[in-house]
């Protein structure tokens, strides 16, 4: 199984990046996960030519070559970060959205609720017809109090979080027959 993990923020430090890095190591026997950074994506400006910037064209090619996509979203003011929305706007305007790929939604947040509201917001965006995304309704991985969730090597320390992530990943793989 080949998956593309998108870090849903342009922040230099992010527990969502740490979560994706953990998933890459943890699920290595089951999946090859490539991590994609969005910090160099220009602001969406609706070009008349519909020509995507090189970084978006590269992302679209990686999405097309993958079996599925993981989006790790932080929650800023109860919503998806503007940087992630920017990427999704480029993908739907200049490319084939998420190219009918299964999308696994995860998120890490400093607060106790994880990224519940941001994940709900992200699912609304992913549900747009132009997005061409497939995702499991009502399921996500919510990592709350993420500053205390990882050890110095970037491993999840709480057994309940590990079990929840393992179960969610297994359900995703089974739902889309990716394993």
From TrEMBL:
Top-level taxon of origin: Bacteria
SUPFAM superfamilies in the cross-refs: Flavoproteins (SSF52218)
Classification via Pfam families: FMN_red
Residues annotated as domain NADPH-dependent FMN reductase-like: 1-138
Name by which UniProt lists this protein: NAD(P)H-dependent FMN reductase
Protein source organism: Ligilactobacillus ruminis
